[in-house]
Amino acid sequence: MRSDSGGRRPYRLRRAGRAGAGEWIAALAAPAAGPRLVVLTGAAGLGRSTVLADAEARLAERGVPTVRVSITRTDRQYPGSVASRLRAALAERRHAVVFLDDVQWIDDASLAELAQDPPTTVVCACRTPLPEAAEGLRSAFAALRGERTVEVLALRPADRAETAVLLTGLLRARPAGELAETLRRATRGVPALLEAAIAGYREAGSLRVVDRHAYLLPPEQLPRLPAEHAALAGIRTLGDTVWPVAKAIAILAPLLSGGGVPLVAEATGLAEDQVRAALHALWSEGLIHRVSLRFRLPVLAWLLQSSADPSERRRIAQVAIDAVWEGGIVGSDPRFLPEQLVQAGRPADPERAGAELLARGREAMLGDAYYAARWLRAAAELLTDPGRQAEAMFLHAAACNLALQSEPSARAAATALSAADRFTPELLLELEVTRLAGLRGMGDVRTMDRIAGEDWRSVPGGPANQVVTRAAALVLTDRWPEAADFLDETRDIWLEGNAASVAFGLLFGPAARALQGDLAGWERSLARPELRPMLAGERNRVPHVQARARILLLFGELGRADALLAAHGQSARELPPSDLALHAALSGDWDRALDLARLTLATGAALAFPPAHTGICRMMAHLLTARGRFTRAREILANGRLDQPVQTQLLDIAEAAVEYLLGAVGRARRLLVAGLAHAAEQDVVLGTEDLWLWLLEWELIHGSAGEAARCTAELGRLTTQLDNGRARHNHLLARAVTEGDASAAAEAVGVARDRGQPSEIADTLFMLARHGHGDAKQLAEAYDLFGQLDALVPRARLRVIMQARGVSVPDDRVTAAEQERLLASLVSEGLTNREVATVLRVSENGVEGRLNRLFQRTGYRSRVELATAILTGDYPA
């Protein structure tokens, strides 16, 4: 509480967010509170009008009469206009609480009249900082205050948590990665601008939602909105000259520190005094800093930049280029000059511009591939020297590939290949493989089939390039054995070709044989003497090593992948996100695995590296299923089949698990059989060790012992063929559960422990427990491991087994909370009561009873409310 000098009544200041502000104002403005002046302050866009409307509605519910007068900027031009509207309103409701919205625009005559005969209680919403035209409002407030107690509520911007909640509501998905923090900083937590930013990014096509998490992708354009949008309309109303000046300073900001009026005048074609007047208007509205001329809210600058039409952008860009090249002005943003060179189209000195863009693009390729691709494309269009133009074209295609831009990558490589005489055979082959990877990412299987069929014979660069290009097309269209056989038949051609043909031949051939079971040959292929020249430099060595680690991770060989990386001076930390996601899942870091997998799917990072994309989808579905996210798992699997149907037996495994747990046991078996048939048709073994084990358990429970024995025999055969730890482990597990072999059970547990994958250890102990093996200590170990993984579904099912075998479940309170959290997750996924009952192993009536208790305890009234609360994080499921 504070008090002015002179004995005036005290005033109280409170700062708060929007939540609860309406109720706070309604309580203060109620007649029982006595005469009041309630002032709601806050920056434009914080929601002052929304809070006033909420407070007014609450008073109306309590029978308190109210009148509301909304004030606009034009009211200052009509003395007494606001007072006249207020008198008319009060004539009908004499003792009403008066609400004045946007009081900063009230005319002086109305203010004077209001101060002479003020209503009992006045609630004002006032923008801060005050516009220059409203400075007299301070003294007028003092007169209006009189003997009233003054209550001031200063709306504060949304903090990190509030921003995340606001964005979740706007996106109907959780903001992922740095999205929430990026937009909070750009908007300074102003809700209206958060809404504008999301609308602008949607318009630009820069948002993607994966597994109900929203990602902001690198946009070719900034968020864009029509000039009439409310976020920009306020600037347009400041005058005809303010709008072009605002766009110019938004673009030229890195060059304007400490001045810049002449530069802005040249960019806009306005006189300098007009520019100064426009800048003064922007500053007096609190939109820009007075010295640097930067917008206080970065998102406004972004929206203004994207609202400039092409001719404006070219003119401003040329002015900026001249200022740097001729005026010697050094900008504060290293991207600024190359971006202006791109925007200028055909600058005054195209050769110099092309050389600058080539140099900047080459430097940025590894750290800023997205911008490198833009700059190198422009360089290729501007340069006239054939050699430098060829270099720009090649680097542009490579940068597009690094930036995960499939269609631009394929298009850039095709453009470069149209000038084949400018490139060496090695570079031509790299361009061909880049083009194919881009086509794979686009899903253009038809073109790749043509290349694999006949078009490979016309590939430039000689016979070695031709046969390797065909092999690449076969691999990328999921025809692995055919690729391996073809490379074996043409070995003399590609081994005697060029360094690139040798490197790719020793990549695609061994990779195809690995999927047929030859993992040892896949690892040994790195040591081939023919490959050493290509692996001498880091540029080629790193992707070759990582490609081999990727296949090992897909087979579940975590230890071998780590050993391979270490042997070549690398570590898992250096893997791309798609491979790192698989590594994290096998290592037991499921939260990180899911985060990395969502990012991979959002960016399409694995689309050009089959079957990595399929493996990511399988892994995500497995983890989500274990956590009770069945619907989300189904969505991931469906999208996986749609985006890239490569090695789909991996998806069959995960989908069979979903269907089985939900009670569709017949469909689960059909998926397992289909997966095995697909693998046999393709002559690959990837994932079959898990398919046979799942089918074995199905036969034990729903089929016949004879069929289960056949599955065990197939796993034995596979162990000999594949020779990896996962296959051996599964065969031992099969023998334990079909033959009751205690020594095989102990050995299976030992193999799992040696492999060091928490989920595999827990799954092993769980499967043995389902079939009567394992002691109380092993059950408790599996239960604890599932808890560490937050694997709610197997943990709940294991509790049933533990209780049946008289093994105590630790901490009843934790168990009760976990059961409720799992129930909430299952319900929020849209499962029926029958499906929930199947997952939890209880009756449908039991589910209904649990659900009623959940609603009573939490206060949620429906499944929809519960699902919304889980999405926004209000309910921590």
TrEMBL record:
Q: What range(s) does the HTH luxR-type domain occupy?
A: 813-870
Record domain AAA+ ATPase: where: 34-156
Q: What protein name applies here? A: LuxR C-terminal-related transcriptional regulator
Tell me the superkingdom of the source.
Bacteria
Q: Which SMART domains match?
A: AAA, HTH_LUXR
